[in-house]
Amino acid sequence: MPTHETGFVYVMRNAAMQDLVKIGFTTKLPEQRAHELSKPTGVPLPFGVSFRALTMRWREVERLVHQRLGDRRISRKEFFAVSVDEAVETVRECVLAVDGMGAWEPDRRHLVKRNDRVSLSLEAGQIFVLLAMPSLFSGRGWEVLDLWQAHSDGDQLEIYGAGQPVEVEGFSDGDPGGDDDPVPHLDRSQNVANGALNGRERLAPGHRLLWLADADDDTGACTSVIFEAWDHCQVASRTWSPQWTSEGYPLILNALTRDPSEAMLRAARAALDLPAPRNWAPRPPANPVGMYPPPSPGHWLPQLRAGRTRRRRTAT
Q1: Distance from C-alpha of 156 to C-alpha of 138, rounded to nearest angstrom
Q2: Which of 25, 30, 153, 180 has the most CB atoms less than 10 A away?
Q3: DSSP code of 68?
């Protein structure tokens, strides 16, 4: 599995450089990086963050963005003679290319453990199948608990490894905070919205999440990636392009607007025959109202914690 840490690829502007944007990465908050860049006395005006993308593979995303905009790069610096809109669109495309299904080894169980942070960039029409084994000793095999669907390109599914079952909440489980966004903002001042939440669910140890996508050609093939929860996990789904039903209701993660293809059904049936999970716990009941305070956004995204410092500087 790639790094379990998340970072940002950002687009910045400086009013003193009207025709240029800076595109780089940081494992801090982009505002902190902008402040660092604005410190030198040779910079007449401060940098401002125009866009940020949260990703597990910030170096790879930055590298691909720089390659695609290479003909408009200024010298060897991270400045490009492009508009903010074009820079943002290029970053979005590269996140989808780097964090998408093609970055994961297919048909292998990817374990998600405590403190892991997994961020998946989705394409419209992709399907998730949630599998659970009711008991390791009952003789019953895997069961399908739920089906989920991505509704637009660039939707993001996040899986956070938690320590305790009381830290996670699910909409389908009727938890009191099951429709609250665990990370609603990407800055400490809470001015930068983290897209629109369209799904929140929880996984228990032993649950498997099967990610399915039809091939782009006419072969009728299907690609599948399997995530297995080692610990309790919080799942959050968000979108930057909300879709709506004909009745005017928002399309959420659990709403399917398509039938799984025959190739997807074959992959799901094959997953039902896989061996038992490596770690297992019963699915916990819904969290009692008010008994356990919900974790702060900084619990899931450490960069939001006030006064957080890092041992190593990883920014460009």
Answers
A1: 36
A2: 30
A3: H
Report the alpha-carbon distance of residue 114 to residue 159 in Å, rounded. Answer: 11
Residues 6+ apart with CB under 8 A from 75: none
Which tens digit of pLDDT belongs to each residue from 269-301?
999 999 999 899 988 777 666 677 889 999 999
Q: What is the pLDDT of residue 34?
A: 94
Can you give the pLDDT at residue 2? 45
Counting beta carbons within 10 angstroms of the beta carbon of residue 140, is it exposed (0 to 12), middle (13 to 18) or buried (19 or more)? exposed
Over the stretch 65-117, which tens digit does the pLDDT of each residue have?
Answer: 999 999 999 977 899 999 999 999 999 999 999 999 988 988 789 999 999 99
Query: Quick one: which of 174, 192, 146 has its CA closest to 301?
Result: 192
Q: What's residue 163's pLDDT?
A: 81
Q: Is the pLDDT of residue 1 over 50?
A: no
Token readout for 64 is 């691909």
Which among 234, 239, 30, 281 is positioned nearest to 117, based on CA atoms? 234
Rounded Cα–Cα distance for residues 18 and 84 (Å): 11
Encoded tokens for 165: 């079952």
Per domain, the residue ranges of the chain are 7-99, 105-303
Strand partners, 185: 193
Q: What would the mean pLDDT of 23-43 be, rounded to a whole number?
A: 89
3-state secondary structure 256-300: CCCCCCHHHHHHHHHHCCCCCCCCCCCCCCCCCCCCCCCCCHHHH
Structure token digits, residue 305? 């914690």
Full strand arrangement of the beta sheet holding 21-26: 47-55, 7-14, 21-26, 79-80
Closest CA to 258 of 97, 100, 128, 99: 128
